Amino acid sequence: MRQLESVSDRILAHFEPVSLLLTSDSYLDVLRKMLKESKTSKSHGEADEKNIDAIISILIERRTYFEQRKPHIISLVGLRELERFIHTGMVGRLDLPEDIYSQRVKAARHEVIKLADLMESEPLDIQIGIIDEAMPSSSFQVLSGPSHSVMVTSPFRLGEMPNVYNGIGTVTYAPEAVKKHEDLMIRLWRKAHKGREGADLLRKLLKDIC
């Protein structure tokens, strides 16, 4: 993903709860904590710590490439997925102390506020659409550049209850697969809440979930 994003001029993205590329500067710090929390009793201590550090390092590189190159990104976000994200908070497991859980709910709300602010400001290189209906169950991106169009699916989650270990992602340059996912994005984009309308919808969601 990192290599493809670094050479792409356009990105069509659907990730739950939101694309990493559109998160706040504090997101990865909280994600590191979530990954540590999600470790099982069979985890391998220092080796797992190194794996987490390596994952965060790669994600930092992805964010850096995106901020430097500023490709055009069109991101679709499910309203129900964001609702669950706010209720659950940025947690790696559900049995956290109440004070930590409260902090993580605030962290999730911060990300939704960031998303609303982006939608309202409408930067030239970022378009975000909020979908108020069922979204595809798998995350994917269609990445395009001067010499490529490629579709990438990912079973991994970087939101609440993250999963970065178990699953198999796919990468295909097959024109039919790329076109089907592009067509899906176009169809969903037409019915999405965008700009100030979408921002107002997110702020209402935050207000309703006190």
Provide a concise account of the structure shown.
By secondary structure, the chain is of the alpha/beta class. It has helices at 2-5, 27-37, 45-69, 79-88, 98-121, 175-190, 195-208; strands at residues 10-14, 72-78, 126-131, 139-145, 148-154, 170-172, 193-194. It has one domain (2-208): 2-Layer Sandwich (Endonuclease, Chain A).
Could you explain how this protein is built, in words?
This protein has helices at 2-5, 27-37, 45-69, 79-88, 98-121, 175-190, 195-208; strands at 10-14, 72-78, 126-131, 139-145, 148-154, 170-172, 193-194. It is of the alpha/beta class and 210 residues long. The protein has a single domain (2-208), classed as Endonuclease, Chain A (2-Layer Sandwich), CATH 3.30.870. A hairpin with a 2-residue loop joins β4 (139-145) and β5 (148-154). The model has no long low-confidence stretch (mean pLDDT 93).
Helix content: 40-55%
The CATH class is Alpha Beta
Strand order of the largest sheet: 6-5-4-1-2-3-7
Rg is 17 Å
Percent of residues in beta strands? 15-25%
| CA-based shape | globular
Low-confidence stretches: none
Number of helices: 7
Structural class: alpha/beta
Distance between the termini: 36 Å
